[in-house]
Recover the amino acids of this structure.
């Protein structure tokens, strides 16, 4: 199982980023995938999950601003992040649903003016 996150960077408040999570080593279409984030000195925070049916679930802090999607043909999950706030600054990880240990190396998102 391998998951590789990408797409992070520095963005101003109110800006947007799209993160990608590329999967390999397992039957991607058969698994739900979750995005988490973790800021320095803070607990891991749930961001969003997308299930095999395409249904989604979001953490309260990102509802209405973030959108999770998947492309089974490309074995990739995306996280579109709009109206970013300073409190969204964190390392973002993707993992198979319920399997934190499958996460990748993470991608840093910094929201700052």
């Amino acid at each position: 199982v391998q998951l590789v996150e990408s797409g992070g960077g520095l963005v101003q408040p109110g800006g947007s980023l799209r993160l990608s999570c590329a999967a390999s080593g397992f039957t991607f279409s058969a698994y739900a995938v979750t995005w988490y984030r973790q800021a320095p000195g803070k607990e891991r925070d749930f961001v969003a999950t997308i299930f095999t049916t395409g249904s989604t679930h979001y953490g309260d802090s990102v509802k209405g601003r973030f959108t999770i999607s998947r492309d089974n043909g490309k074995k990739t999950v995306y996280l579109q992040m709009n109206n970013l706030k300073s409190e969204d600054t964190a390392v973002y990880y993707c993992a198979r649903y319920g399997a934190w240990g499958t996460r990748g190396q993470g991608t840093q998102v910094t929201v700052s003016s």
About this structure: The two ends are 37 Å apart (CA to CA).
